[in-house]
Write a structure and sequence with these properties.
Sortase, Chain: A, hydrolase activity, Class E sortase, Sortase_dom-sf, hydrolase, Sortase_Class_E
């Protein structure tokens, strides 16, 4: 038997049974199979959990805020359009011609309309802050509960504080991050004299920002009718905005104070500070 014939006899024909000796040789020449260690499994689980936590934080801090802000803008625009349509439907078709002499006379300040306090979770206003951009418009609802107002509407009105334009303190709260579009995320960027405008079904209430203050969470005196000890006298109309500080924590509260400037009835059209704002 020649060498070629021996080589052919030693080959294992396709489909033929594998002998016990050949199985032993194959096992001896095969590379050892890796076994997953407990440490490796735990490491992979922790890595996956870390990625999920990072995605959740990114959602809470950035993506969720952007989506919430866009939703706030759209729903506030819808509410403002509804009020405008209601006002137009109630306006008489024929208006008296204004007297020329009266038109030249200085316009006296209009006494603000004071609406009743809303129910918990009831929408009643929209806040505009031009400093925060032309798209900033956030609904205001009654109460400051997270589930019914802050997380769903955006800005909440503290019960038993005054209403827009009323003598005393119109006090509101909103998140700075993570929920409801974070309406007060940029509150620390306000400048003295910035307009803050609150729209209701009756018209627009313009306040002028005064200053910021940082207080303990227990400092409920910021909700008083006269919110600061440094503010003297009564008979004034204030707007107090409250939120958490620093960002992403609840260690303190950041407080923004503003003073009432004027009321513009709906029949007179929106204030000049809102001119050019897209509906």
């Amino acid at each position: 038997m020649d060498s070629d014939d021996t080589g052919r006899r030693s080959e294992h024909p396709e489909g033929a049974p594998i002998t016990r000796g050949e199985r032993s040789r194959r096992r001896a020449g095969a590379a050892p199979r890796r076994r997953a260690s407990v440490t490796g499994v735990i490491g992979e689980v922790l890595l996956t959990a870390g990625v999920l936590v990072f995605l959740f934080i990114a959602w809470q801090m950035w993506i969720g805020d952007l989506i919430g802000a866009a939703r706030n803008t759209a729903e506030a625009q819808s509410l403002a359009q509804e009020w405008e349509q209601q006002a137009q439907s109630q306006t008489p078709s024929a208006q008296p011609t204004p007297d020329a002499t009266a038109a030249e006379a200085p316009v006296a300040p209009v006494e603000p309309v004071i609406a009743p306090e809303p129910a918990d979770g009831q929408e009643f206003g929209i806040m505009y802050i031009p400093r925060f951009g032309p798209d900033y418009q956030v609904r205001i609802g009654g109460g400051v509960s997270r589930s019914r107002t802050l997380d769903t509407i955006g800005i909440g009105h503290y019960p038993d504080t005054q209403m827009p334009g009323e003598v005393g303190n119109f006090a509101v709260a909103a998140h700075r991050t993570g929920y409801g579009g974070a309406p007060f995320y940029r509150i620390a960027e306000l400048h003295a004299g910035d307009p803050i405008i609150v729209e209701t079904q009756d018209g627009w209430y313009t306040y002028r920002f005064r200053n910021l203050e940082y207080v303990r969470p227990s400092a409920v005196e910021v909700l008083n009718a006269v919110p600061q000890d440094t503010v003297e006298g009564t008979g004034e109309r204030y707007l107090t905005m409250t939120s958490c500080s620093p960002k992403y924590t609840i260690m303190e509260r950041i407080i923004g104070y503003s003073v009432f400037e004027s009321f513009t009835p709906r029949s007179a059209g929106a204030p000049a500070e809102l001119a050019g704002r897209g509906a």
